[in-house]
Amino acid sequence: MRFMLLFSRQGKLRLQKWYTATAERDKKKMVRELMQVVLARKPKMCSFLEWRDLKIVYKRYASLYFCCAVEEQDNELITLEVIHRFVELLDKYFGSVCELDIIFNFEKAYFILDEFLMGGEIQDTSKKSVLKAIEQADLLQEVSLNLKHKMA
Amino acid sequence: MPAPIRLRELIRTIRTARTQAEEREMIQKECAAIRSSFREEDNTYRCRNVAKLLYMHMLGYPAHFGQLECLKLIASQKFTDKRIGYLGAMLLLDERQDVHLLMTNCIKNDLNHSTQYVQGLSLCTLGCMGSSEMCRDLAGEVEKLLKTSNSYLRKKAALCAVHVIRKVPELMEMFLPATKNLLSEKNHGVLHTSVVLLTEMCERSPDMLSHFRKLVPQLVRILKNLIMSGYSPEHDVSGISDPFLQVRILRLLRILGKGDDDSSEAMNDILAQVATNTETSKNVGNAILYETVLTIMDIKSESGLRVLAINILGRFLLNNDKNIRYVALTSLLKTVQTDHNAVQRHRSTIVDCLKDLDVSIKRRAMELSFALVNGNNIRGMMKELLYFLDSCDPDFKADCASGIFLAAEKYAPSKRWHIDTVMRVLTTAGSYVRDDSVPNLIQLITNSVEMHAYTVQRLYKALLDDISQQPLVQVASWCIGEYGDLLVSGQCEEEEPIQVDALYALRPLIHNYFGGRTIVSDFMSQVSEDEVLDVLEGLLVSNLSTPVTRAYSLTAIMKLSTRFSSVNRIKKVVSIYGSSIDVELQQRAVEYNALFKKYDHMRPALLERMPIMEKTATNGPTDIAQTNGETDSTILDTKHLPSITQPASQANDLLDLLGGNDVVPVIQTTVPTKPASAGGELLDLLGDLSLTGGPTPTPAPSVPMSQPPFLLDGLSSQPIFNDIAAGIPPMTAYNKNGLKIEFTFERSNPSPNIAVITIHATNSTEADMTEFVFQAAVPKTFQLQLLSPSSNVVPALNQGSVTQVIRVLNPQKQQLRMRIKLTYTHKGSPVQDLAEVNNFPPQSWQ
């Protein structure tokens, strides 16, 4: 996977994860372009499209578009499953996730994503395992904060 | 300093902004606050500030001043800080900034941290955005972690290693020992990431590939366990056990089995098992099947398995889910070359997909359809493809039209069908057809000799309907120019074309065109010459016609001058365009005028019917351009060949003057019997007229088709008598008894074999020389043409001169020699004289 984007129907970017080194200017351009292309798609169309030299796999969940750019040799159908797994993780974590959760807790969304994927590949295929790791890390964060207060 | 506002607070505030300007203002204010906070080196709130900065960065605002702060956060001992710090590093930093190298030490320390979650953070950051330098420095640490027994860290280390290898391929060797027992892990996370790592290594290095082939049995075993094992809640997705791992293993097997018989053999069974046992009701199952099919097609699988794979794809095509159909079409496209017959079986389904709503599916279906066309199914397929051409999006039309032409070329069952198909394409998608198809079509039409009449009639009919589609108009006007006589004589069957849609046949053909004249042309009733000329002239004046089309029609009109009787009308049209603003048209018109006036005797030969053109290999537009280029040069080569093979023995023979063949007969002999077979020969002859590449576009354009092709492009821009002539000095050929004859020379640039000599005869005596006749003879290797003199009285006392043009063809470039005979009456007595002219300047014949 080259990158993953989350954006709303209004074209507002909610999350962007780039797995290749790209200049800031190019990133912005690509995001803008891709958003345009995907938002123009009609509901009945298939979830795959060609864009530049990449394959784009996208799926809409409520008001959010989840959009991944994969390479020629990647399996598009399984990418759809990857997207779905990510949504499930968010859902489990936030409890019936909605766009607002991701807006107000974007850093947590990133943490979950980084626990699930690395370099564009899945780290762990077990939902339970990923969620447990996040949970533990959150606990660690709590502890360190409490410690700080104690010390203050 | 009050505590900086919390992240959520900021987000809420910014979201209340009603306009972009308001938002910008809030952001700027907050940025200023953050900046001053950074300046104060405030450790407590740094984390919060960076988090806010990251939010603003996501909205699109600059956040580079936070980069160093991220580094400070990473260096902090607090986990919260580290978390945000690393996130910030991944979002704000990349290998372009020098700052990122400062991270290396922090990451190194964190890779050895006591808490696995910190280690995880650093591994993740390195694995996502580590630059080559960082990777080089830290590869050792990663390798160490790859060998740890902690599966949480091991899986992350594996993916980090993948990134390291991508950045610094030379380090791949380093990770080899650690891969030894990766696959014996039970943990699916480790298994999955290990397979990814192995895949990466095998893809990059053939040595690694051969080394890892021995893992095939182990991989097969793992896959088997996954399929056969019962329900495992942890890894289950819609009833399938760990599909992600299955897909990855299948992909690795593909790479390992490619080109290797033994490995392929070992996987046959498991592949068959996966293919038959996987549930296809949900997307997951289909994802696995898809990967299986890809693997089967790539390795050396037995034919039964391949057929199974294609059948799976065929089933996919019938699936309701369009994603699956899309994927099937893509895969079929890849396999159609190798397993053509198997794919043929699904042809009808594929053709149905042409009617799908989705653009990507349509495109793939179109490509696949073209790949499946063969001699047997051409008629049926073409029907579908033509229907598709009618209704598809404009972006497709060019490709579809080209594809149809190619297919028709290869598999046309009959010439008539071919022409009908071509016509159909021109009329439905005429404006999208590629420019280079025009000469191809012209060639096709020329070569179908028996279809000329039919073709020209259909094209004429099409022109009456619609003159907006330029390629159609161009081909039509060319044909009318060539075969106008057939059109007017009405000799043709009037059947409706065979390959036609019922709707198309019923189209009413009653139209108005300029001037409100109606033509009912359902059947080819007698078309008059005037009507044809009306149409062609209409093209000339219509503002739908491009300059190229206008040029075509002017030439066509000109050609009709030898086929039609209404020559005067044609002359008029041609002369009008002599003053056209369009330089191209003007030039043509002027030259055609010249053809009418000075060279009328050549006109029939020049404008004769085109012979059958050499068939060039048609592999596609670019190939056509190339092969045409080749034929062009071969034509030019053959032109020169005859002159070389002529005997050179007659160099010194001079003709017997007195035998009366002083004037060697005229150029007609050098007009080849196929006048315009290669415009080259014509041009050779008439080079100095600077006629362009024949009145017809040649079959071998070696210049881009945006203009009508000229074989001698340079020629068209030259004046009739070129500048080089000025360089040849005139000479006095004869000077006796008061009669002086001077020769002046012109030679045309591209055809230097022709020298045009103008003689000027002047009389310095007091009496006129009347009945002046100048005759000349040349050696046999030359050919001579003597044009009419300006008068036969040379006035006395140099008051005037008689001029006469001699044209000498000197293909062997031999030294020019001439014998001249002069007869005239001077002061009542006849005078006769013979002379030899040897002192021709070298430039006149070299």
TrEMBL record, chain A:
Q: Which UniProt keywords apply?
A: Coated pit, Cytoplasmic vesicle, Golgi apparatus, Membrane, Protein transport, Transport
Q: Where in the cell is it found?
A: Cytoplasmic vesicle membrane; Golgi apparatus; Membrane, Clathrin-coated pit
Which Pfam family, just one, is annotated for this protein?
Answer: Clat_adaptor_s
Which family is it part of? Belongs to the adaptor complexes small subunit family.
Q: Domain (AP complex mu/sigma subunit): give its ranges.
A: 1-140
Molecular function in Gene Ontology = clathrin adaptor activity
Q: Where are the transmembrane segments?
A: none
Q: Which GO terms describe its cellular component?
A: AP-1 adaptor complex; clathrin-coated pit
Domain of life, source organism: Eukaryota
Question: Which organism was this protein described from?
Answer: Cyprinus carpio carpio
Cited PROSITE patterns: CLAT_ADAPTOR_S
Q: How does it assemble?
A: Adaptor protein complex 1 (AP-1) is a heterotetramer composed of two large adaptins (gamma-type subunit AP1G1 and beta-type subunit AP1B1), a medium adaptin (mu-type subunit AP1M1 or AP1M2) and a small adaptin (sigma-type subunit AP1S1 or AP1S2 or AP1S3).
* Protein name per Swiss-Prot or TrEMBL: AP complex subunit sigma
Does the entry feature the keyword Cell membrane, yes or no?
A: no
Q: Which InterPro entries match?
A: AP1_sigma, AP_complex_ssu, AP_mu_sigma_su, Clathrin_sm-chain_CS, Longin-like_dom_sf
Bilayer topology reads: Peripheral membrane protein
SUPFAM superfamilies for this protein: SNARE-like
| BP term (GO), one | intracellular protein transport
TrEMBL record, chain B:
Stored SUPFAM superfamilies? ARM repeat, Clathrin adaptor appendage domain
| One of the protein's GO biological processes | intracellular protein transport
Q: Name one Pfam family in it.
A: Adaptin_N
Q: Give the UniProt subcellular location, in the record's own words.
A: Cytoplasmic vesicle membrane; Endomembrane system; Golgi apparatus
Where is the GAE domain positioned along the sequence? 726-841
Answer whether the UniProt record assigns the keyword Transport to this protein. yes
Q: Name one GO cellular component term.
A: AP-1 adaptor complex
Q: How does it sit in the membrane?
A: Peripheral membrane protein
Sorted UniProt keywords: Cytoplasmic vesicle, Golgi apparatus, Membrane, Protein transport, Transport
Recorded superkingdom: Eukaryota
Gene3D superfamilies according to UniProt? 2.60.40.1230, Leucine-rich Repeat Variant
Does this UniProt record's set of keywords contain Transport? yes
The similarity comment for this entry is: Belongs to the adaptor complexes large subunit family.
Give the protein's recorded name: AP-1 complex subunit gamma
Q: What is the lineage of its organism?
A: Eukaryota, Metazoa, Chordata, Craniata, Vertebrata
